[in-house]
Amino acid sequence: MLNRKQHPEYKTIKHIDIPVPEKISLANGSNIFIFNTGTQEIIKIEVIFDAGSWYQEKPFVSASVNEMLLEGTKMLNAQQIAEKLDFYGAFMQPAPTKDHGSITLYTLKKYFPKTIELLAESIKKPVFPEHELGIYKNKRKQQFIIEMEKVTSLARREFNARLFGEKHPYGYIAEADDYDKLNQADLLNFHKKYYHPGTCKIIISGKVSDADIKLTEQHFGQNDWIKQTDAPKLQLDYPINSQNEYIVEKEDVTQTAIRIGKIIINKEHPDFHKLNVVNTILGGYFGSRLMKVIREEKGYTYGINSVIVSLANAAFFVIVSEVGADVARDAVHDIEHEIKILREKPVTKGELSIVKNYMLGDILRSFDGPLEISSAYRSIIDIDLNPGYFHQAINAIKEITPEEIMHLANMYLNETSFIKTFAGKYE
Amino acid sequence: MINFERFTLENGLKVIVHDDPSTDIVAVNLLYNVGSCDESPEKTGFAHLFEHLMFEGSINIPSFDNPLQMVGGENNAFTSNDITNYYINLPKENIETAFWLESDRMLSLDFSEKKLEIQKNVVIEEYNQRYLNQPYGDVFLLLRPLAYKVHPYQWPTIGKDISHIRNASLQDVKDFFMHHYAPNNAILSVAGDVKLQEVKLLAEKWFAPIEKRQVYNRNLPKEPAQKEKRILEVERNVPYDAIYIAFHMSSKLDKDYYTSDLISDLLSNGKSSRLYQNLVKKHKLFSDINAYITGEIDEGLFIIAGKLMQGIKMQEAEKAIYEEISQIIHGPIDEYEIEKVKNKFESTHQFGQLSVLNKAMDLAYQELLGDAGKINAEVENYRNVSVQDIRIVADKMFKSENSSTLYYYSKNNR
Fold first, then answer.
1. Which candidate in A265, B25, B275, B409 could, as Cys together with A269 as Cys, close a disulfide (CB 3.0–4.6 Å)?
2. pTM for this model (two decimals)
3. Which residues 207-266 of chain B have a CB within 8 Å of chain A?
4. What is the CA radius of gyration of chain B?
5. B348 touches chain A (CB under 8 A)
């Protein structure tokens, strides 16, 4: 007779194969990281520069440069680029972030020679035509204004500003009108200064042959684009917050967006990987304590999570949720209570082994296929795609004890040190 | 080419196996042939609420998530108008845990008032987060009932109204389970480094003992042909006006389906597409415009949705859309352009088959439509569409009497 109460034998993940990239350093300073893997005849190539909003002197410049790379070059206009890309069934995805400007090409392998040419041309020789810039600005401005109707966007903006300071590149409060102030010269200057081989990293994955690598070298390894420049490094100067609750009022809301967190250690700190386990227990997966209490016990929200965001020049911890506007205070009370428990009571063996196994499974999944491998390595671009990072993460997960968890929670996650921001109603 | 094998258990459960030795992850996907179209008009949102309850513990296993996380697995589910689909992704060594968990919740759930109460609250917050507390979030709550008068596609999966969720009783929930959740109303597909024999043994062990059930016999009313243009005007607290036009189109099993999908690609797939080039870039009428099909199994909708640039009049925007439509019917379409959208489909299809999870989902869904083998015919089906087909289908579909238009005005602009 089948005993359905008895689970099948749980087999722990003994070994995780961590793919290691083949690295080619080119004479002009750029670096290629190659993962030849997968079963499908496709290639993903991402080209990344130190060209995020961190470096901009005017709001929206870095994102506009990044998103307008495809809007015209010396040889091709925006429509011609779009036509060609679409004809080859390729996708080009710009991704402006706080630290980087990157652009990813997804292409069938058979069209790689054609599509990489478009990619290289767009990155190296964009002209940011006035006319296209005008359309882009108006469009983006409207989208920005719509975005600012969302409580989650308002809370994010407020949180970053309070955490880093309004003048800090990570915390700057941009306004819709800032789009009006952008001009072509800003974009050209920014591109000239920051899209250069010196910080260029290329991650290529899929069915990558020697010929494909050669092509990549030809397109990105020559001296036919701008020379290396030095980007200024700003000094971090955090604000002293006189209060710890900030509310962006919005009328007629059914939910209030919450962001609670603080500045924390980044991924190069020796405690980082273990702190990540602490974070996972609290709010880093579906079975986390915050999900169990705020969603599954109280029904205050559709979802809640916490995360450690490690940027190139700072890191922060944040708890994110949208909760019923009438229960926002209760939710915050419960969130704080959960952090207190984490600091004061050791995690049970059972819970810890669930979290450990879940996290190991997650690492295994993050190397499942060429797209995932490339994304996993993209997340450690600032530490030079060092595979050691993943080994350290695995060791930290395997080693951590309930005592260490309590210790780390006390050291880094004291709830009295948090900045709390709300958008919507908070009464 | 996706190779697969399949078999059916005596209780009617269909099983599909796709062997992909290139990965250490295995995907186990269980599709139930029940969606929001199976709800009664007085109790909408039920299929989706039920999906939430499926994670609240089953008859022999108090927690669904804990054991799965214990073996390094991850899971989720979605509900559509047609189906409810559950999936698990886990290290291949632990595949049996997925069979144990999925079979127990097919056998029976551990129903309780308390769990129901909590999940009702969670779903209400989901309703708030996704539909009410978002700019333009209520569009489908308005557009669906405008386009459908008879067919249950007239409500979105979240439900017509929050009160339907609030009023759900434990008896309703139990009835729903007995009528729809059964081995003979489900398709299991497994993809990863697995062999047919192994899956057979596991399926026999865990699923075969579940008895066949008397399931509800789906018999959906057919939406009568629309005779006149339908219009709804609303005013909302949003920054810009928007327009949504829905045309009735073919069912998923009709060959016109592929043609309609390609028409939507001609209009708006990629930056070189017609609506983007002409209406966003050239005429600067919209900040955003899209054409797409809703993709249901019964007759679905072809939707054109655009947000107007500040200062543009609704009539002007609508007229421009109809001019583009008219160009599809009467204007030039060269082979190059058709080739382009077909290439794009092929590429999207290839990228869609990169993960075992996507393959498992797709195989189960194609089997529901009649034959999992159709997964390998998809590209060909799109390749076979001609310019002539496009004109005929467009002419039939894009009639104003076949349309439902939602004028979504900004309060500030009026």
1. A265
2. 0.94
3. 209, 237-240
4. 23
5. yes
